Amino acid sequence: MTAVIKTSALRKDFTVWHKTGRLRRQRRVVSAVDGVDLTVTEGELLGYIGPNGAGKSTTLKMMTGILSPSGGQVSVCGLTPVPQRTTLALRIGVVFGQRSQLWWDLPLSESFSLLRHVYRVPAADHAARLRRCRELLDLDAFLATPVRQLSLGQRMRGELTAALLHGPKVLFLDEPTIGLDVLSKQAVRGFLAELDARGDTTVVLTTHDLADIEKLCRRLVVIDHGRVVHDGTVAQLHAAYRSRRRVVVDLDAPWPADLVLPGASVERVEADGLRVTIALEDTTAGELLGRLAGSVALRDLSVREPEIDDVIARLYAGR
Amino acid sequence: MSDTSTSGLPRILAVVAAAGFRRHSTYRQATIAGAFTNTMFGFMRCYIMLSVVDVTGQAGGYDRAQLATFVWVGQGLLAVVNFWTPPELAERVRSGDVVADLLRPVDLMAMVLATDLGRAGYALITRFVVPVVVGMLAFDLFLPADPLTYAAFAVSVLLAVLISATCLHLVALTAFWLMDVRGVTMVWALLSGAASGLYFPLTLLPDWLATLLWVGTPFPSLMQAPLDVLVGRGSAALMVAGQVAWLAVVVALARVVQRRALNRLVIQGG
Ligand SMILES: Nc1ncnc2c1ncn2[C@@H]1O[C@H](COP(=O)(O)OP(=O)(O)OP(=O)(O)O)[C@@H](O)[C@H]1O
Ligand SMILES: [Mg+2]
């Protein structure tokens, strides 16, 4: 397992000036990234998440060589990003969701063939990769459309393709699913899952859509105020935050308010007492059911797995 | 700065230039409107200049035909050598879209210059041709007899395009410090128009001032030089040599400024 990305004590401070009077300005230093240590090995698909302003985009900019760190080290594919930016550009692919790397006035297909030359990709490799993207991302309908006329979802599929045509070792994706509809999101996720399954591309994915994370990432790094607050699997996150499974029961008669349930707690009572959500703390669903069956008239029930949104919300809120 | 090995770079830049050509060819209406405007102003400028010649017998050392050529070819070159379009890069720095340019495996300035050569090529076959043909039909233009003069003119125009594009790249790079480059762009547009021979031949100026402009600024290299090469006023070799020298100066300056700009890189926006 070789490290493809390695940072140690990586930091970025921005100096911002505040107007305090008519002429007076006050200097303030914002530590956008505040000592991040991260090692990403070949083929990993890493979810890099955190609340707004946590420092995700700033980290990605330093990793891709378009922003100089204020301190610490970063190396990607064995290169130091800023001084070796143009060499590194051949080995990485980047999508910044809110920006475009395509040529605005040209048809999508022309951007692609231009990229082939700019990255000096052998024609056969280029054709093979483009074919795969066309199939998986459904590009054919708008290949001949000028980029400025594409919808957001269409453009994003184009951006993903553009980032991959030169066969990068590492792919950096900063909110690639932002603003996409369900189908486009599914297309992008399916595409990334397929890429991950091949195992030869390392991916760093930033997103606010936790479904992306749940479906794609085994490893999750959460940062807040520029610091890593969690680095591990999604399951470890649930364990650390004691995420609970829930049982939702539908009843024939209203819920008796005085019922005591050891190891579980009632979270919500709805529909005039006919629907109740119970969180499992120190018991199993089976034990709970046994107890309920003797006390209430059960009509229907379902068990809900802990939701990543909940645990992330608790993580963000508890900072 | 550039780690791109030189093998293949000319080919990459040729493809980028071709893309610049095609990008501009998608704006047909703008091209037609531009050619029309430049032609209209050609009539105006030409009648004014010729009325001066009719009174004094010559103007700035040009006879009627030379002056008509100066005006009409100047109206054509005005779109080829970029004077007024603000550099795209400045806006991209302001918005943060410059990230895409910086993530290419090719040096930023090389990409910018290649793209502009493509734009100039498209302008040459559209916006240059229209006023020159109209001028030829409506006036007696001076046409050099020596084919070498046309070759020298072509070289001089190419140099003018490169000098202008490099200067505009310098203007754009100030965006890394200033964010808003409108002021700098305006100063550039004003100076490059007045001091290049675009509005009037520099020979109308007092000798000391004209000499100062030729020696001390790149502006005459943008317009006066190619036009004088064409109408055969002064030494073509000297003027082209002067352009080469100025190109070397502005390119060297732009390299230094670009390196500084990229070292202090701050990309705007998340
Ligand atoms: N160019 C800049 N100048 C000053 N401060 C900046 C600059 N860029 C980012 N910051 C600050 O750095 C911090 C981190 O920003 P960053 O864009 O990395 O956040 P993020 O995690 O990507 O957030 P989001 O989820 O909203 O995209 C924020 O407080 C932001 O205000
Ligand atoms: Mg961001």
UniProtKB/TrEMBL annotation, chain A:
Record's keyword annotation contains ATP-binding: yes
UniProt keyword annotations, A-Z: Antibiotic resistance, ATP-binding, Nucleotide-binding, Transport
Subcellular location: Cell membrane
Domain ABC transporter: 5-250
Organism lineage string: Bacteria, Bacillati, Actinomycetota, Actinomycetes, Pseudonocardiales
The organism of origin for this protein: Actinophytocola xinjiangensis
Protein name: Methionine ABC transporter ATP-binding protein
Pfam families, A to Z: ABC_tran (PF00005)
One GO term (biological process): response to antibiotic
Any GO CC annotation of this UniProt entry: plasma membrane
Coiled coil regions, renumbered to chain: none
